[in-house]
Amino acid sequence: MYLQAGFTACFSISQIVAATKSSQVLSSTLRSLAQEALCVTLETGRQIHHTRFLSDAWS
Fold first, then answer.
1. d(Cα 34, Cα 39) in Å, to the nearest integer?
2. Among 23, 28, 38, 44, which residue's CB has the most CB atoms within a 10 Å radius?
3. Does the pLDDT value for residue 7 go beyond 80?
4. Whether 13 contacts 7, CB under 8 Å
5. CB contact set of 10 (below 8 Å; sequence gap of 6+)
6. Which band of pLDDT confidence, cut at 50, 70 and 90, is reported for residue 6?
7. Is 17 in contact with 23 (CB distance < 8 Å)?
8. Distance between CA 39 and CA 49 in Å, rounded?
9. Number of domains in the chain
10. Residue 29 structural domain
11. Confidence tier at 25 by pLDDT (50, 70, 90)
């Protein structure tokens, strides 16, 4: 039920966005934000792994 409503909402939003002239700007902005979020996630994971490795080395 909720999943169906979510899909319907996303589909409606994508249709509205596609109808606007700024859709290309919006999609490139979303793409760069997604890329940035991925980089931050990877970097955070790397730092956590590095910290864990150091703490294991000292114990």
1. 9
2. 23
3. no
4. no
5. none
6. low
7. yes
8. 15
9. 1
10. 22-59
11. confident
Cα 10 from Cα 23, distance rounded (Å): 15
CB atoms within 10 A of CB 39: 10
The Cα–Cα gap between 52 and 35 comes to: 26
Q: Residue written as tokens 């290309």?
A: 24
Residue at 22: amino acid letter: S
> What span, in angstroms and rounded, lies between the C-alpha atoms of 48 and 55?
11
Half-sphere exposure of 55 (CA within 13 A, CB side): 6
58 in a domain, yes or no? yes
Domain annotation covers residue 12: no
Tracing tokens 């955070």 back to the chain, one arrives at: 44
